[in-house]
Amino acid sequence: MSPEKSRGSMTAFMQLAFNGLALGAAYALVALGFVLVLNATSAVNFAQGDLVMVGGYGAAALAAVLPLPGIALLPMVMAAMALLGLAVAALAYFPLMRRPASAVFISTIAVGLLLQNGALHIFGPEPRAAPPVLSGGQLHLGHVVLPYQSLAIVAVAAVLVLGQRWLFAHTQLGRRMRATAQDREMAAALGIPVRGMIALTFALAAALAGASGALLSNQFFVTPTEGGALILKAYIAVVIGGWGSLEGAVLGALLIGEFETLVAAWFGYTVASALLYGALLAILMARPQGFYGEAAERRA
Amino acid sequence: MSSAALAPTLRGLGDRAPWVLAALCLAAYAATASPYGLRVLALAGAQVVLVLGYQFIFGHAGALSLAQGAFFGIGAYVTAILGGRYGLGFLASFPVSILAPSLLAAAIAAPVLRLATHYFALATLGLAQVALLAAVNGGAFTGGALGITGVPGIVFFGWAVPRGLGLVAAVWLVVAAASWLSVHLTRGLTGRAYAVLRGNPLAASAIGLSEQRLRLAAFLLSAGYAGAAGALHAHILGVVSSESMAFSVMVACLAMTVIGGSTRLAGAFIGALLLTYLPEWLRSLEGYSLLAFGAALLAAIVAAPTGIAGALAKAVAALGRTERPILPTPAELPVPQGPSGLSLLVVRGLAKRFGGIEALKGLDLTIDRGEILGVIGPNGSGKTTLANLVTGFAPTGGGTVILEGRNITALGASEIARAGVGRSFQNPALPPELTVLEIVTLARASLEDDLGFRAALAGRDRSDRRERHEAEAMYFLRSLGADGYAHALCASLPYRAAWRVEIARILALEPKLVILDEPASGLTEAEQGELARTLRRLARLGLGLLVIEHNMPFLLPVADRILVLDEGRAIASGKPEEVRQNPAVISAYLGRKVGLA
Amino acid sequence: MNERLLEIDVPGAALESSSLVVAAGEVVALLGANGSGKSTLLRSIMGLYPARGAVRLAGEEIGALSPAGRARRGIGYVPEGRRLFPGMNVRDTLLVGAHGSAAAAGPRLRTVLELFPMLEKRLETPAWQLSGGQQQMLAIGRALMSEPRLLLLDEPSLGLAPVVVDELMLRLRGIAAQGTAVLLAEQSVARTLEIADRVYALAMGRVVAEGTPAAVHASGVLERAFLGADVVTPIRNSSRAEEQP
């Protein structure tokens, strides 16, 4: 291969890798929220993807009223989403606390339906876009073009992920949330208000989802039904990264973003998706008695 | 007709009356409906079949499958391709539409059904997404994103069933057949067996029911029904596109099943009809129907988990007669066969690791028929692990377990239960929603392989056999003094009854070896005495017993030999008197007991 | 005489009801074999298990309070197996036991670290990497961070070497001397008798003896409860004819 050509394909690769990083960063926020709730409640929040969609719409709608750059709107969107997260916990989780996990699966599917159709009614079926975080435009690094928006997504996601880490590692609130997620009964025996911690976890997860939506909906128009694919990707990220691991979920999501972008560029989006789901099924089936076996052994 | 025969006949009529009434209403509506109305009615019928299918895996087997929509779509596409593109008649395309998703289900069943809730849901969701991708990107084969048009109605050898009333009749005929099959498969003891699977999977294995087989059968049936529903859907609409595979189909099916009622026949009808007609009635309220769907699903799962059908059934039961059901007369059973000359249980080098911890480090033990071996040891010494390994509730990490010459080391829990090893659990393995008589009856039926869809199809799940099993169950309950509790729900049993029922459940499978895990816990001294006498009686009948206990005053007089475990090893073995005075045993229990006489 | 800090109804040997009492600054031991009900009793004081009768803390009925509520009223709980939070280091484990902010917990943290100096050197160590004895000290330290009036311990000596158990018992004695009441459920009899002010012996969920360590030890009731020492073997030796075939 000639030097120009190899440089060209190297550039193309780096370009794609960077795009994949940005996509993965947005996914990471969704996956992080997903696994936080999973740890705190042992339940799958199927509405997490739809929360991303609401965040996207929220940012778009807010921008129509307040002509500010995305970065200024973001805290407002996240705050509103946090409140929505509390509502989801109240509707779909707390009434079902003593029931098996599949009940919460279903109730969050129902909430997802409500969110989708609520969005459809409030915002209409036309796709919307949120404003960019800072501005449009691009940075040129050699031959590689780095859109400011993608850079901003990576930066914002990094700040939020690191912020969550800091919260959990260095504040009493974070310690209490961790304790609740790891051993609810023991946490209660230490005087921790377990329900409050769980509610806050939902709020945090929703805020992260909303941020992801606000970030993504600039490049990818948001429609009411896009939550579905996202929840599957969050789920896959958590399986890849190790069920229950926060870092694993983030890394898994980054991996998925990269994988999707790179494979799609060469073979098309369909092949990328098919390979992703195929990989998921392979991982699930290849794990030894592992998942189920562990549970059976723990029980008896 | 004598009055004694009249009552059950009237009751039978009473059960059927609502159905006859509903059928008449439906027919009346069909006779007067517009072509559009008939089309909706036909589509609703297809949805009933879809929900009936989903009830097998989601309702009866209690597994959250998210592939039902995909199976539906596959059935629809098969019909569209075979009927639309190749012009094959109904008799060719319909069976294939049923077979194709069933084969797919069978192909993925083995690895996927082992997965616990979240993973199973995820795997089926992944499968559904793959199917959707295949449909959208199938090029000329699947018609791509636009799908396949020109799907004919139901055609038999060139004669097309007339659209409108004819098609409605044909569809609802299929509904009737599907309903008959559902009822036939689940009305008998098999339905109750699935209830055990949902309510207490340990109990299911303990009475010899293979969880894997039960789930597999349910999964295959759900896929087959979904394929049939999809085929009908294709014939009615005349068009198949990726919409038939979309996740919204799955969500709608889930909503119908939960809202209608996931285990009752009426639930499928109520759910499907309600949620098919709701958008029609709310047509004026443009698209609020989906919001209503979501709200109804949420309300149902929170407040009415058994669905509308379940709520109705409860209401009817509350209003109905409260006559005391009669107790079946106990049967007489022959005494179990005598010893065969081989040791009953021989365990060699049994080992098990959990993560970094060695729970058992190479254990040997032998039990003969007629012998009671007590197993004692401090917390964490491996007693329950031993029980789990021998009975197949956990896989071994080394060593062999031989039951009267037969190597059972690698067998699963339900197989070992049927091979003749019964066990109790620290918390009695009794499914909360079943009655005492039901669970013991199921154990008897399981022993004779009268449970499961295959048995139901073969006609072995019938009322006369059920009556015989009930009589046999009463025998065991009476011999343990629990016959008075026959119609009590297992969830409501006090301790003093639960232990009896647990042992009756064990004996009903005619075991050779019985393993009891802390049977005396929670019992008064008088009951402990009765338990001890029961155990000795069983030993005299030729059973071998392994009794794990903490309660020394109970165990030491009852056991023939004692085995002491500490940290996964046997540290002493012998007659109770010897073991009790063994210094190693004393220090394992009491700590360095300097000074205690 | 010290005020009754904790009072809970328990069934007695002859099925009558009696009460288990702990006074401020006392070390009270619950002795009994596995399955004797010691853990259940502690859990019901903490609200993790339904209590059979009344539970009173400093005269106030706390039966209606949740476990978190009881913890906030001044009960510290060190459960069987310690139940340390996986992934948390020593500092976080201690701080999560405090009821207020980390800043407010500063002085208390120092006090607890003085009590358990081996933890001070290992503040950043993940809890799972500590030895059994250190983990037990950490679990106790965590419970002490909320300055409880009553400390409940469920079999703290389980899995620990005798030397470590000795050290543990000395610390518990010290904690009680500072004014915190200690209610200790144990299987390891000898060590516990040495530090307890009073002892309750449990068997099958009932209190079968109560008194000073010396008195209970001398009565021999402990051996009977643990190993059925003097139970004659009536079942096997009874006339076979009496039993139903």
Oligomer: heterotrimer
The CATH homologous superfamily of the domain at 4-74 and 148-242 in chain C is termed: P-loop containing nucleotide triphosphate hydrolases
Number of helices of chain C: 11
CATH architecture of chain A: Orthogonal Bundle
Beta-strand residue fraction of chain C: 15-25%
Protein described:
The complex is a heterotrimer of chains A (300), B (597) and C (245). Chain A is mostly helical and 300 residues long. Chain A has a single domain (3-299), classed as ABC transporter involved in vitamin B12 uptake, BtuC. Chain A has helices at 3-41, 48-65, 70-93, 101-123, 148-170, 172-182, 184-189, 194-219, 227-241, 246-267, 269-286, 290-299, and strands at 138-141, 144-147. The longest helix of chain A has 39 residues, at 3-41. Chain A starts with a helix and ends with a helix. Chain B is α/β, with parallel strands linked by helices and 597 residues long. Chain B has two domains: 22-244, no CATH class; 345-590, P-loop containing nucleotide triphosphate hydrolases (Rossmann fold). Chain B has 24 helices and 14 strands. In chain B, the strands form four sheets. Chain B has a six-stranded mixed sheet, sandwiched between helices. A four-stranded antiparallel sheet of chain B has the order 6-5-8-9, with helices on one face. Chain B has a two-stranded antiparallel ribbon with strand order 1-4. Chain B is elongated and about 90 Å long. In chain B, 53% of the residues are buried. In chain C, the strands form two sheets. Chain C has a six-stranded mixed sheet with strand order 6-7-8-3-9-10, sandwiched between helices. A four-stranded antiparallel sheet of chain C has the order 2-1-4-5, with no helix packed on it. Chain C is globular, with a radius of gyration of 20 Å. Chain C is an alpha/beta fold and 245 residues long. In chain C, 37% of the residues lie in helices and 21% in strands. Chain C has helices at 38-46, 67-72, 90-96, 106-115, 117-120, 132-144, 162-177, 189-195, 213-219, 221-227, 234-237, and strands at 4-11, 17-23, 27-31, 55-57, 60-61, 75-78, 150-154, 181-186, 198-203, 206-211. In chain C, helix 7 links the parallel strand 7 (150-154) and strand 8. Chain C has a domain at 4-74 and 148-242: 3-Layer(aba) Sandwich (Rossmann fold). Chain C contains eleven helices and ten strands. Chains A and B meet through helix 4, helix 9, helix 11 and helix 12 of A and helix 4, helix 5, helix 11 and helix 13 of B.
